[in-house]
């Protein structure tokens, strides 16, 4: 794709206060190829949470970007991410979603690798000279970079990429607000939700930091949530006030004061009287440890964080991790994992998982509404003349602020403008996230 062809996807007019994105960004196949090389192969991409390989010898396989990844823990506690392919003739090494094992055997010709990626055996009595693989060429191929922040493991295909910590920039503060909710740490529950859909991955991604659509598209849910929390719609509307934030490097999110109850430490009657002392004790602990201001944010406010380009952390009435990856310009795969506090009381855990299914699950309040909008957009994008999607809310005429670190009302589109600005810069090669 030529540089000239990249012109005009993102159109900014500060004088008029307009931030627009060409609809072709949501279906152009050549652009999708460019995204793969210039964004997905240069950004830190979420692989897994450390709790998913808690025991030595445990492993999982996962599709990360365009790659099948084997993520595992060896006997000595080392955590690795390899390309899930046999180094003999490139056969997929493991087809298991997860499991235990200190070796990986390829069924084709019998090559065997240990958990540190070393080739142990070629399954042949002859044909290989002594010293074959002395230089390690035939060991499993690790991904170029694997780093973690707070137990969240990310990989990067660019060996020269900035460190994960530097990459996360201001987003770390919100990750910490999640991590610090439990002294004993967090863990991912077994299983996952997976969606394969026929629209562009960016529809899913940008929706996660879109607070604007909540009261209109999810009105049923908001009425239900208000009733459940014992709030009148008026009280709830007032609490909807919050903030939209851009954290640098394209990361952003929004935070709300709306009362939906949080199993970590914000009890509402719908959680049941039996959970009240447990949740209130936890709240008191968090407030004592982290202070009134931060503790209140952690316990009563909800937030959605998008780590550029596609890792989402939902700290709402449950905790979840979500990714959305393109399979083509017009098809995507999205995965959701539920994150829970280690050692949580089973009564509270039950409420948490019910909340997760009620809102996030495939038959929950949010998904069907949102996914119908993505479908409708995909249809309309194909059936309309040239068109620009609008991301101008909160941008006034003469706007002079830096899109990358902007702050606005929660329902403004400041967080979207940060994301699209990073997308545009990376796609053009102006930003490589190296350093
Ligand atoms: S392809 Fe794996 S052993 Fe030959
Ligand atoms: Fe939604």
Provide the fold topology:
Elements: H1 3-6, E1 10-13, E2 18-22, H2 29-40, E3 45-49, E4 58-64, E5 67-73, E6 79-83, E7 98-100, E8 103-105, E9 112-114, E10 119-121, E11 145-149, E12 152-156, H3 164-168, H4 171-179, E13 186-188, E14 193-197, H5 201-207, H6 214-217, H7 219-229, H8 233-239, E15 242-248, E16 251-256, H9 276-300, E17 302-307, E18 311-315, E19 319-328, E20 331-341, H10 346-360, H11 367-382, E21 388-390, E22 407-409, H12 414-428
Antiparallel strand pairs: 1-2, 2-21, 3-12, 4-5, 4-7, 5-6, 8-9, 9-10, 11-12, 13-20, 14-20, 15-16, 15-22, 16-17, 17-18, 18-19, 19-20
The structure holds FE2/S2 (inorganic) cluster and fe (ii) ion.
What does this structure look like?
Strands 13, 14, 15, 16, 17, 18, 19, 20 and 22 form a nine-stranded antiparallel β-sheet that branches. The protein has 435 residues and is an alpha+beta fold. The two termini are 25 Å apart. The mean pLDDT is 94. Strand 8 and strand 9 form a beta hairpin. The chain has two domains: 105 residues, Rieske [2Fe-2S] iron-sulphur domain (Rieske Iron-sulfur Protein), CATH 2.102.10.10; 259 residues, Naphthalene 1,2-dioxygenase Alpha Subunit, Chain A, domain 1 (Alpha-Beta Complex), CATH 3.90.380.10. Helix 2 packs across helix 12. The protein contains twelve helices and 22 strands. It is globular. Helices cover 30% and strands 26% of the residues.
């Amino acid at each position: 794709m030529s540089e000239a062809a990249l012109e005009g996807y993102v159109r900014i007019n500060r004088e008029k206060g307009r931030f627009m994105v060409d609809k072709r960004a949501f279906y152009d196949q050549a652009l999708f190829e460019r995204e793969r090389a210039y964004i997905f192969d240069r950004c830190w991409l979420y692989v897994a949470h450390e709790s998913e390989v808690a025991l030595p010898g445990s492993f999982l396989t996962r599709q990360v970007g365009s790659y099948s990844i084997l993520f595992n823990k060896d006997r000595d506690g080392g955590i690795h991410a390899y390309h899930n392919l046999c180094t003999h003739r490139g056969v997929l090494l493991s087809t298991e979603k997860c499991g235990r094992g200190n070796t990986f055997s390829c069924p084709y010709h019998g090559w065997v690798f240990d958990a540190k990626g070393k080739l142990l055996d070629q399954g042949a009595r002859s044909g290989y000279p002594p010293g074959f693989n002395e230089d390690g060429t035939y060991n499993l191929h690790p991904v170029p970079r694997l780093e973690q922040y707070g137990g969240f493991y990310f990989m990067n295909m660019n060996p020269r990429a900035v460190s994960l910590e530097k990459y996360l920039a201001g987003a770390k503060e919100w990750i910490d607000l999640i991590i610090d909710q439990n002294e004993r740490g967090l863990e991912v529950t077994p299983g996952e939700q997976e969606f394969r859909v026929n629209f562009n991955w960016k529809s899913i991604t940008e929706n996660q930091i879109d607070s604007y659509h909540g009261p209109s598209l999810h009105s049923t849910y908001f009425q239900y949530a208000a009733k459940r929390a014992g709030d009148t719609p008026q009280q709830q509307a007032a609490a909807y006030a919050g903030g939209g934030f851009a954290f640098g490097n394209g990361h952003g999110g929004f935070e709300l004061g709306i009362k939906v109850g949080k199993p970590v430490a914000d009890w509402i009657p719908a959680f049941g009287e039996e959970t009240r002392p447990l949740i209130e004790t936890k709240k008191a602990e968090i407030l004592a440890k982290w202070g009134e201001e931060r503790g209140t944010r952690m316990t009563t406010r909800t937030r959605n964080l998008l780590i550029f380009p596609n890792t989402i952390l939902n700290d709402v009435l449950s905790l979840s991790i979500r990714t959305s990856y393109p399979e083509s310009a017009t098809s995507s795969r999205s995965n959701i994992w539920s994150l829970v506090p280690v050692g949580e009381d089973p009564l509270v855990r039950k409420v948490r998982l019910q909340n997760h299914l009620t809102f996030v699950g495939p038959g929950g309040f949010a998904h069907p509404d949102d996914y119908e909008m993505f479908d409708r957009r995909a249809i309309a994008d194909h059936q309309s003349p040239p068109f620009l999607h609008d991301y101008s809310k909160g941008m006034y005429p003469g706007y002079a602020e830096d899109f990358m670190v902007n702050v606005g009302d929660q329902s403004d589109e400041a967080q979207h403008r940060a994301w699209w600005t990073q997308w545009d810069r990376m796609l053009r090669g102006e930003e490589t996230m190296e350093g």
